[in-house]
Amino acid sequence: MVVVAGLLGNGPQAHAALPPHGVDQHAGPAAVGNHAHAGKAEAEPSLDDLETELAHASNARGARDLLTRIEQIRQKDLAPTTNLLLKRAQDDLDAQRPLDAVQDMDDALLLQPDVEVLWRSRAQARLAAGNPDGAVADLGVALHHDGRDVTAWKILEDTEEQRGDWQAAWKAWQHVMQLDPTIPDATHETERLRLKAFGQPT
Questions:
Q1: Which of 4, 38, 125, 158 could share a disulfide with 101, CB 3.0–4.6 Å?
Q2: Helix orientation angle between 132-145 and 150-163, rounded to the nearest 10 degrees
Q3: Cα–Cα dist 195/2, whole Å
């Protein structure tokens, strides 16, 4: 199963000047917390509410809409500099520069280590850079923050496949199925992973 989710989700796409990779890692912390809460509706669904709704979604279109809203919430507290590092990491991955993407995410995590989506994003970069063990470590932190992050579980399933740990991949896939019942080709993927993990039934 190939994970195609991007690092950015639905965050801001603006470009701005950033320091070279690995330089000026402490630029930007003052921007943290500057996001305004004024005008936010009190009844706006929480991340937990939307994840619960996703777990009971009845069709793929509705699930994709929920995932979009979930990603927006995940990224709402990112400082401007962190957001730009996340964007640059995605650009690096698109340009087949995974090590640069990892450096971008290292810098982002120095700024906001408490943001779950950044750990998940560095895991994607580490996996692309051929470091599945590092990806698993980052996903452990991400899932500790939010054990219902279906995208993190998808990445973990893909990572465990690359590591050749098919039973771990199977377990991660069970979480994906529980958290998003509209996953395309779920029956085929479930059978494929079951056979890899446990072999043909006797």
A1: 125
A2: 160
A3: 18
